[in-house]
Amino acid sequence: MGLLQQLPALQVAVPLIGAPLCALVGRPRLAWMFAVAVAWITFAISIALLEHVLDAGPIHYTMGGWPEILGIAYVIDPLNALVLVLVSGMAAIIMPATRIGIDVEVVHRARHLFHTVALLALAGMLGIAITGDIFNLYVFLEISSLASYALVAMGIDRRATRAAFHYLVQGTIGATFILVGIGLAYMMTGTLNMADMAARLPGVSHTAPIQAALAFILIGTAIKAAIFPAHSWMPNAYTYAPSLVSAFFGATATKIGAYMLLRFVYSVFGADYAFDEMKIGWVLIPLGLAGAVAGSVVAVWQHDLRRMLAYSSVAQVGYIAAAIGFANRDGLIAAIVHVFNHGLMKGALFLVMACVIHRLGKADMESFRGLGRRMPLTMGCFVVAGLSMIGVPATVGFVSKWYLVSSALDAGLWPLALVIVATSLIAIIYIWRVVDVAYFTKPPPGARDEAPAMLLMPAVVLCALCIVLGVSTDLTVGVANTAARLLGGAP
Amino acid sequence: MSEFILVRVVVKIMVPFILLFALYVQMHGDYGPGGGFQAGVVFATGIIVYTIVFGIRRAVEAVPMTAVMAMVCCGLILYAGTGFATMALGGEYLNYSVLDSADPVHGQHTGIIIIELGVGITVAGVLTAVFLVFAERRARR
Amino acid sequence: MNVIDFVMGHALQWGSVALLMIGLYIVMTRGNLIKKVAGLNVFQGAVFLFYISIAHVRDGTAPIVHEDAVLYANPLPHVLILTAIVVAVATTSLALALIVRIRESYGSIEEDEMAKVDMG
Known about the structure:
Mean pLDDT of chain B: 88
Strand order of the largest sheet of chain A: 1-2
Radius of gyration of chain B: 18 Å
Low-confidence stretches of chain A: none
Helix content of chain B: over 70%
Radius of gyration of chain A: 21 Å
Shape of chain A: globular
Strand content of chain A: under 5%
Largest sheet of chain B: none
Strand content of chain B: under 5%
Shape of chain B: elongated
Helix content of chain A: over 70%
Number of strands of chain A: 2
Oligomer: heterotrimer
């Protein structure tokens, strides 16, 4: 087999073997360089995979040469190829910044293992996205979750350990719910391969275990994706984790949860069964929109900006959940596009927080006073990503909101379209609060003091992407279109 | 617990056998019940019993923390590295058949032994590390 | 099928569901972090039991090749659950490590006392 055929395995295996090597390296500087190299190699692999999938259709890779239904198969279609690009791309963009980023924000004892754990988290997330085996998905889910609890606990504030503990408890409950669901589905179908299971499910779909399996998996993924009201682990975890960790997880962790939901609903249980028979839209739409409203409103009152961003993530995940719940073609596109776009803008916003914390030690309203003059580039990034969060035209946020609103209208639920627009207006309030403080208050004495370029560059790159991909939507919407067609679009 | 002479003598005699039994379980794992995970747990148990009886200081002299961490990493590298080796030989990831081009069954046998060895080393390392880290923290306070 | 058959015929499943709920209840109601971890372990243990129960084959023996045996239990769930047990071990040790650090910085492992410390 040539290198091209081996790419699916390499996508996960490279960061997986990179993690222990990184721990063996020992010297922090070398470990950092190594981790950056691994992240960029994975990114290159994911780009190659995406191109290959778009050209030649889904890729199937069998682990160990076992037949697909017996062994573990990796199946890559446009949907997970896009998620792979998002996850590995965020890692590749954020990883270089960790060299100085972890100096201020990671407890001293844990620094030498930071990159090892980060690579494990990366490998786990890529594994979730790439695998076509339902139990393998659970294993990777736990790998990435355990690594993320550890990363959150590395925060310098003592509340980080408490947040990590709550994250661990709730995350484990979520993953165990998914495990129960997988067990029930396996019990009735006798297979763990997603495609095979999807083929066998219609025969038994009327039975109680399958209905319970869908319910368990729905709740489990809802906890992992932080869909309201199962979001309570997120605000503390993202507030007290090191900001670069928040940037990476804010951009990817909840998106992986949303991806799992899409995958289970469309590729395993089937959209007809999930939406027409089990009516999960009746759960996803109200909860999603309630989350959008609650998250946005609560975000307005936050003093710590990282907590504000976390609550805004609750709102954004709510949009994704509602978009899935609308169960039409535009909704599916909106969900996929927003998974990608929200990753970009939330990553950029958390990176801005990393810059501010690096200079000022904290990121509350007080420290943003006059920051527009003190750190102009950093605040520029905040404004661009913030506009995107609101959904201003020519940013990525607008693209997702457009499809979201049009899918609500397609579903014949125009009042809900109004709710979506209204929550965007609330987003203006919480973004404007910060802009107001940063540009229109008197700065405290002190010269211009921009964040170090190494921290600033990733934020600038992500902001540029927010605009470029907002103007030219070929990549995101194009891929989402193909993915939606392959997944079966509307039920 | 080092003040009880009976415990000390018994443990001193038992530990080598526990470690030996771990190796037996390890090597027996390809055809019978056993394998890397169980062997690793048994091996770690030997070290943990030793630590409980003779104290953390002597245990760390015998198995220093850096060695334990190296075990964790090396086992994982052995496992993942086997996958890379099979890919280099032209098979899928962890397709052991290609390890012996003349006799695929023999290749699979080789592969599973190496993999289980990697699992065993990592599990033994992880469990020992977990115990030692907790114990050291207590000793420091 | 009458009610008694329904209950007795699924005894293992009922047992695991009961444990599942006991575990979840402990996790949600206890303020002591160690008790939360214990509840989490009961919760996960219930799922292990459930997986083992679905592997059961009537009159089947342990899935080890043996000349007298004709019928084996399904070995796949056993293997799956071995993986899940490893995950549970890792989760528990990480949780305990976090508790040690929480105890060191807060001086307590009770939720309400930690909240008091955080309030200042």
